[in-house]
């Protein structure tokens, strides 16, 4: 019998996680809808299921978002209904909300049974009946001994009758609302015209990633408490730039990737840099560029933002550029050149790598780590024939073949 407890805990945690994710995702959906008509608004999320949207004239919209299992009903004694009422009643009683400039929206995946309080407070004018809803709420309190809802009942009764009616007059219950997957589809529909159709999923994923981090900053109190229309519009503009035909999106987390250097010690490209004779710090930089370029390019390929043929063409272009630099520097070596002179030539070639003057993968995708990292990716492959030391082939054979044997 006791074995059911851990399972129940897992389901509770999963439901809570889905609820938070729904709140964040639905907040983005509301923000995008408002972006269609203007920028003069701001939105905030609280560490619960609250969303607040403030419009230009000072009008405020207060949302409660409830994500429940399929088939759940929003009954008259539902905790979701009464918890939302408690939050709003207390805010009104404490003068935190001005009813004259407020609207309240309970969005839930639960169904509103016919004739229920929830159905009486829907947006359907034919079934909406605020006085009857108020009467039914009072009747629930009279007939109930629920401890779970006790604080909500007290908050409701703490308002005078006229204030209760005024609150209900500004309350809409949107039952049978979209679930978390449905909201994702709504986001895609909102953004379909922002980029090429084949790129919408990747575009939405990056927008949601930024939005999620921004909301976490709000929850933690480490960032501004509101996201403005101007802020969202500016981010969308920057994001669209990365999806232009002559560009590629460089993800925000990529420049901060830091590799575990020990994991790359035996990589061919690390041996290549070591042959040049540079310090450990520059070797670490090479590993970092390699990891960042490898990770970003892999994402582009996985999301079909770039095709393998384009990568192949780009690598052939890099090899051709490398060949000009390598041959020019190697030709400057006299017969019987000393080790010091060979090392100097290797450093000249490697300086070209670090300066990243080779062409970018696309004209406007100019992050230098992508050029450097792509060159290191070539240097990591035997078949590319790319290296930095004028005698890199022979020296790598001497270094690597004994280990392979």
Automatic annotation (TrEMBL):
Residues 269-395 form the ABC-three component systems C-terminal domain. It comes from the Bacteria. InterPro entries: ABC-3C_CTD7 (IPR046913), Cap4-like_endonuclease_dom (IPR025382). This is Uncharacterized protein. It comes from Jiangella alba. Pfam families: Cap4_nuclease, CTD7. GO terms for molecular function: nuclease activity. Residues 15-83 form the CD-NTase associated protein 4-like DNA endonuclease domain.
């Amino acid at each position: 019998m006791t074995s059911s407890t851990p399972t129940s805990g897992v389901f509770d945690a999963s439901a809570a996680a889905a609820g938070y994710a729904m709140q964040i995702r639905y907040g983005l959906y509301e923000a995008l809808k408002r972006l269609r008509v203007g920028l003069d608004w701001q939105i905030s999320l609280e560490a619960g299921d609250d969303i607040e949207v403030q419009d230009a004239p000072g009008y405020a919209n207060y949302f409660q978002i409830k994500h429940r299992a399929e088939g759940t009903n929003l009954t008259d004694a539902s905790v979701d209904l009464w918890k939302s009422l408690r939050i709003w009643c207390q805010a009104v009683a404490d003068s935190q909300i001005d009813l004259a400039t407020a609207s309240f929206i309970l969005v839930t995946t639960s169904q509103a049974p016919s004739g229920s309080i929830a159905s009486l407070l829907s947006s359907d004018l034919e079934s909406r009946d605020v006085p009857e809803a108020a009467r039914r709420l009072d009747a629930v309190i009279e007939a109930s001994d629920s401890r779970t809802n006790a604080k909500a009942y007290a908050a409701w009764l703490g308002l005078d009758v006229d204030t209760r009616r005024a609150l209900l007059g500004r309350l809409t219950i949107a039952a049978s609302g979209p679930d978390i997957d449905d909201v994702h589809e709504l986001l895609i529909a909102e953004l379909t015209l922002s980029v090429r159709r084949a790129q919408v999923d990747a575009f939405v994923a990056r927008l949601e990633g930024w939005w999620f981090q921004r909301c976490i900053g709000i929850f933690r109190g480490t960032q501004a408490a509101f996201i403005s229309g101007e802020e969202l519009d500016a981010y969308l503009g920057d994001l669209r730039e990365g999806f232009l035909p002559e560009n590629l999106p460089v993800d925000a987390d990529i420049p901060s990737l830091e590799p575990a250097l020990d994991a790359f010690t035996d990589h061919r490209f690390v041996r290549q840099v070591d042959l040049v004779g540079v310090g450990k710090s520059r070797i670490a930089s090479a590993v970092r560029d390699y990891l960042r370029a490898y990770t970003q390019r892999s994402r582009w390929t996985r999301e079909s933002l770039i095709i393998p043929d384009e990568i192949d063409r780009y690598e052939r272009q890099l090899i051709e550029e490398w060949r000009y630099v390598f041959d020019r520097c190697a030709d400057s070596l006299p017969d019987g050149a000393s080790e010091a002179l060979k090392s100097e030539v290797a450093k000249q070639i490697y300086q070209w790598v670090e300066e990243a003057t080779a062409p970018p993968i696309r004209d406007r995708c100019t992050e230098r780590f992508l050029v450097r990292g792509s060159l290191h990716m070539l240097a990591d492959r035997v078949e590319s024939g790319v290296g930095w030391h004028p005698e890199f082939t022979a020296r790598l054979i001497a270094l690597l073949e004994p280990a392979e044997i």
